[in-house]
Design brief:
By secondary structure, this protein is an all-alpha fold. It folds into 2 domains: about 1-65, no CATH class; about 80-165, no CATH class. The protein is built from 10 helices and no strands. The longest helix has 19 residues, at about 1-20.
């Protein structure tokens, strides 16, 4: 009986975990709540599961968001970068050519996907092209590495930094 209850509890946590992981940030857990603070700087599935379980089972992240405590804010935006990651992964070669040239449909599509205003798209193209070697350091670079490098490049630009959270 105890084993069955334990398995049901583990399954419910695994099923509920994605729902608890909606508050922005660079990982699946979010950037606030006790679990996020307790396991800050840790990486890998084990740390993420422990952090989200801590946040979810004690409901501290929900309380933190509604009260503005535990490192949470009430003005946060729920975001997901999976579309950007999927686009980069599916268009890696075409995107590399467009960034190298500083123009092209894949680069325009990426800018639109990220939500870059029309007035800043030329800046995005210019900055991406100027940092091509950093974004695409080799032909074996992964989509995750491309995304991370692009985010760093955009974050470092005074005009484009406002869009880095969407990458």
């Amino acid at each position: 009986m105890k084993r069955t209850l334990g398995l049901l509890f583990a399954a419910s946590i695994a099923t509920a975990a994605p729902g608890f992981a909606v508050a922005g940030g660079e990982n699946n857990v979010g950037s606030c709540g006790w679990g996020s603070k307790l396991f800050e700087g840790e990486s890998g599935i084990f740390a993420q599961v422990l952090a989200v379980t801590t946040n979810g089972t004690s409901a501290n992240q929900t309380f933190g968001i509604t009260s503005g405590t535990s490192g949470c804010t009430q003005d946060g935006t729920v975001s997901s970068n999976w579309k950007t990651a999927m686009f980069i992964d599916g268009n890696k070669e075409a995107l590399a050519k467009a960034i190298a040239a500083g123009q092209g449909e894949p680069l325009d599509a990426l800018a639109t996907l990220i939500g870059i205003d029309e007035k800043h798209k030329a800046d995005f193209s210019r900055v991406s092209q100027a940092n091509f070697a950093r974004i695409f350091p080799s032909t074996a670079v992964s989509a995750a590495e491309i995304r991370a490098s692009l985010k760093e490049v955009v974050s470092a630009d005074a005009v484009l930094a406002q869009y880095s959270a969407k990458i």
